[in-house]
Amino acid sequence: MAAVGNQATKRAVEILSGGGRLAAEASRIAARDGIELPSLEAEQVRFQNVSSEIAERSLQVRYPGLYVYCEGLANQGREKFRNFSGKVYMVAEIRVTHDHLEGVTDQLMSYVEAITNVLEGSRGAWAEGLYYAGGYKVEFGAIKPGGKNFLQAAKIRFELDASTD
Predict the structure, then answer these.
(1) How far is the C-alpha of 48 from the C-alpha of 46, rounded, in Å?
(2) CA 71, 77, 80, 83 torsion: positive or negative?
(3) Which residues contact 161 (CB under 8 A, 6 or more apart)?
């Protein structure tokens, strides 16, 4: 069953960072809003659930950072002869940092819009047995010390329907 979460996470990372989609969308939003956004390269997208405090102490962290992970699985047994048929609960957590308090939220909002735009454009089958219907929920965290001076994160939660043998 855990393999479903792994497969879903890998596919979500491919969709969000593959082909420069997210970087292009962030650039488009920055140009539209007249703000400067640091680039979000593929190596800044991580396949893990790690707190910002541990990441800053243990990893070579570059901001902005996108952390994609499976938060949970629910085998709802919708398909009688399948090993797993249910929901995969995913999170795409974007973290941004800025040296001024005023700039951190503007950057975060722009990246959240870019991520949700890419997700909205990716509705449908993600892989055999994985389907994204298009819904999501955004949760914004408080600004705290970290990164350059100030760090803020947002979690974009979304669900995948899964069915595997």
Answers:
(1) 6
(2) positive
(3) 86, 87, 88, 130, 131, 132, 133
Domains of the chain: 2-164 (3.30.2000)
Nearest-angstrom CA–CA distance, 129 and 73: 14
Spatial distance between the Cα atoms of 58 and 83, rounded to a whole number of angstroms: 37
Is 4:84 a contact under the CB 8 Å cutoff?
yes
Output the pLDDT for position 30. Answer: 94
Is 0.85 topped by the overall pTM? yes
Element (H or E) spanning 82, and its range? none
Q: Which neighbouring-strand residues pair with 137? A: 157
What is the signed CA dihedral for 56, 51, 35, 37, rounded to 10 degrees?
60
Distance CA 146, CA 123 (A): 34
List, for residues 37-46, the tens digit of each pLDDT value. 998 888 888 8
| Token pair 């539209």 in the structure block, residue | 32
